[in-house]
Specification:
single chain, about 260 residues, mainly alpha, 3-stranded mixed sheet, 13 helices, disordered C terminus, BTB/POZ and MATH domain-containing protein 2, BACK_BPM_SPOP, BPM1-6, BTB/POZ_dom
Length: about 260
């Protein structure tokens, strides 16, 4: 029996390989060979091997660089004025991430020649908490907890901003969060957004919640519900169809 002992990784964290020709010449017998592996669990005090890909190339840290660029605010070349406050950013980063910003900042629009752009169609809290700018630079959202503003409200306004600036990834993220946060306090306002932005899954989920008889009994008498149904009569028809589908005889609808 021919045996050898070899660690799978060298001192630099690069994987070790045996050439096939060496394996066949020295260890293959009757077309077979036996491979025995042992695993050693190292103590926490052991110096960690550098993290590398199988190829030996260091993992990309471009995300860290963009986070640093966003936080340091160096070399910024455009500012936004929102409710009297100024927020700075980089034109090239905004244009690369958003087709709307690209048109505004590098197209023929007036904003392309302005150093400070007034934002009037986005709620101030979206820029004050900076979740939209944070996402543009990092593809992630910061901690958006606020003692005065419920997270769902911030998410709703952020969804509007994402749709306004063509940030599809952010729009999808907000959509997913709202899908998981439908309640008596948010169902109507979230349904309104879903209808305006044509988010079918979110709209269906809100309608299912509202059409629960006990929920409908309480929501249907609110001004918010009445105003929404007046604005979008098609929603009222959908709710009526859903209620009729739940009961064979809608005239005997019982609210439990």
């Amino acid at each position: 029996m021919w045996t050898f002992s070899k660690n799978c990784w060298d001192e630099n964290g690069i994987p070790w390989y045996m050439e096939r020709s060496e394996l066949e010449a020295n260890f293959l017998r009757d077309g077979c060979f036996t491979l025995v592996c042992s695993v050693t669990i190292l103590s926490e005090s052991y110096k960690e091997v550098p993290k590398r890909f199988v190829s030996g190339i260091m993992p990309s840290n471009i995300d860290d660089h963009f986070v640093d660029l966003f936080e340091r605010k160096e070399t910024t070349d455009v500012s936004f004025e929102v409710d009297g406050e100024i927020f700075t950013a980089h034109r090239s980063v905004l244009a690369a991430r958003s087709p709307v910003f690209n048109a505004e900042l590098f197209g023929s629009m007036t904003e392309s020649k302005m150093e400070t752009i007034a934002i009037k169609d986005i709620k101030p809290l979206i820029f004050k908490a900076m979740p939209m700018l944070h996402f543009i630079y990092t593809d992630s959202l910061p901690d958006m907890s606020d003692e005065n503003i419920p997270l769902v409200i911030i998410t709703q306004h952020l969804l509007v901003a994402a749709d306004r600036y063509g940030l599809d990834g952010l729009k999808s993220l907000c959509d997913d969060r709202l899908l998981r946060d439908i309640s008596m306090d948010t169902a109507i306002s979230t349904l309104a957004l879903a209808e305006e932005l044509d988010l079918e899954e979110l709209k269906d989920r809100c309608l299912c919640f509202i059409c629960e008889p006990k929920n409908l009994l309480l929501l249907s008498v609110t001004d918010e519900y009445v105003q929404l149904m007046q604005r979008y009569p098609s929603l009222l028809k959908k709710i009526g169809d859903d209620i009729r589908a739940q009961f064979q005889n809608p005239n005997q609808l019982a609210i439990s």
